[in-house]
Design brief:
- It catalyses: dTMP + ATP = dTDP + ADP.
- With about 220 residues, the chain is of the alpha/beta class.
- The protein has one domain: P-loop containing nucleotide triphosphate hydrolases (Rossmann fold, 3-Layer(aba) Sandwich), CATH 3.40.50.
- The chain has 8 helices and 5 strands; from the N terminus they run E-H-E-H-H-E-H-H-E-H-H-E-H.
- It has a 5-stranded parallel β-sheet, sandwiched between helices.
């Protein structure tokens, strides 16, 4: 194990699961531990990726086009930002990554996992996140939060309940195949309870890579 090594962390979950509530807190905790951190998102993360994000979130398109554009943005992101950061010893925190394609395109849109896996292998060549935090809530909770929190919704957020139920099931299927990487977070709980759990997970990652856990840790 490399002392003070890099780490690639991703956040996943249904729209409305609440993961965005904790991103800044996670960033702060890692930086206070002395981590050089790249915080980014998908789709997006690069100038080209942000252009493709606007198309993906707001323009109707064929499912295959959607999936290919997701991976076009991801390839640019991986090659120009994420991989160079990791190779330089930085940590990377990414709001969604390839597991989202397995969940939303593979599950929600019923494309199936195999086309997504082929693209994953082609773009990432066997490399991926070290830890994935999957924020999980029942569908009704996610939909209720989404309705309360957004003035405008994108075309994914406007999908019906069956779509989101398939998406959630696909996330759970992914987590079941890789339990060492996934940490399923029960996001129905209070912010304080969730952050207590997140803090323990992050402290474990920090220790294994040669960092002391952050101090003065407000929730």
């Amino acid at each position: 194990m490399t002392t003070r090594g890099a780490c690639f962390i991703t956040l996943e979950g249904l729209d409305g699961a609440g993961k965005s509530t904790h991103i800044s807190w996670i960033e702060d905790r890692l930086r206070r531990a002395g981590v050089a951190l790249l915080s980014t998102r998908e789709p997006g993360g690069t100038p080209l990726g942000e252009t493709l994000r606007e198309l993906l979130l707001h323009r109707p398109m064929d499912l295959r086009t959607e999936t290919l554009l997701m991976f076009a943005a991801r390839n640019e992101h991986w090659r120009t930002r994420i991989l160079p950061a990791l190779e330089a010893g930085q940590w990377v925190l990414c709001d969604r990554y390839t597991d989202a394609s397995f969940a939303y395109q593979g599950g929600g849109r019923s494309l199936g996992a195999e086309p997504v896996r082929i693209l994953e292998d082609w773009v990432q060549q066997g490399r991926g996140p070290d830890c994935t935090l999957l924020f999980d809530v029942p569908l009704e909770t996610a939909r209720e939060r989404l309705a309360q929190g957004r003035a405008q919704t994108d075309r994914f957020e406007r999908e019906d309940e069956a779509f989101f139920e398939r998406t959630r099931q696909a996330y759970h299927a992914r987590a079941a195949t890789d339990p060492d990487r996934f940490r399923v977070i029960d996001a129905r709980r209070s912010i304080e309870a969730i952050r207590l759990e997140l803090g323990g997970i992050l402290d474990g990652l920090l220790r294994t890579r040669g960092y002391a856990p952050a101090t003065l840790d407000p929730v």
